[in-house]
Design a protein that fits this description.
The chain is built from 8 helices and 17 strands. The chain is α/β, with parallel strands linked by helices. It folds into 2 domains: 202 residues, Rossmann fold; 93 residues, Methionyl-tRNA Fmet Formyltransferase, Chain A, domain 2 (Roll). The strands form 4 sheets. A 7-stranded mixed sheet has the order 5-2-1-6-7-9-10. The protein is elongated.
Length: 310
Amino acid sequence: MKVVFMGTPAFAVPALNALISQHEVLAVCTQPDRPAGRGHKLQPSPIKEAALAHNLPILQPKTLRLSESKEIREELKSFGADIFIVAAYGLLLPKGILNMPPKGCINIHASLLPKYRGASPIHSAILNGDRETGITIMHMDIGLDTGDMILQKKIAISPDDNLQSLHDKMAQLGSEAILEALSQIENKTAQRIPQNEQEATHAPLIKKSDGIINWNNPSEKIINQTRALNPWPGCFTTHNDQPLKIWCKESSFAENTKSPGTVLSTTKNLIIKTADGCVSITEIQALGKKRMPCADFLRGYKIQIGDVFS
């Protein structure tokens, strides 16, 4: 099948590589290069780098709005693709582009729709303590992840999974699911399963402020937060007005009557009181410093039992 692929981050790379291996990818559409790093030099997206490695034509429009994208639309149409495949592209496709390819536009979405429509479905699954998630292959329409579904593939979420590990598993699962869906489309066996609007939930874009720890939350919620926001934006607390980035796990330390945020122990790891128990901080990173084991951090930074994190 002749394909135009639209995607931007690392999540989309396995899908692109899978499509290249079994279909004719005519071109790739990805976000413009963005400044990154301390020098703020323009950096290509992971999908652009993958496309360059395969010598594919690359389009990088700033917008797909009708009033500003006439040339891009004409170029997309000129490829004569059968289908457009989208994976975490980052721009909404207007109706004129959705209707362009004969077999439509198909999206690889990282949740079991209609749950977690939106920008951060992998984060949301971990934040909410879900035991499983999955990939949905769906027909695109003008709504945000509202189109009819073709198929879903489920995957278990391990208690040890963080954002990065689950992301990598989901990216691979997405590459397998899109090949299966395209086979069904070619064989004319693909389903169109409407989503249940009553079950729809939204996964909003993650902000740095989402990483602020509230010690009045239960231990499980705090641990899920540190898993879901690792590696970015990370989770932060404050000690003596100094922000500290932390990583933590469940603790078996006996509960007591101290207020949430209180330091209960400084032996090896920091044990901090939560709303319903406590957690063990295993690693810490001070502003401008390297991430290090909690025990090493405590050799050079004074934290005492009874101190309160905020």
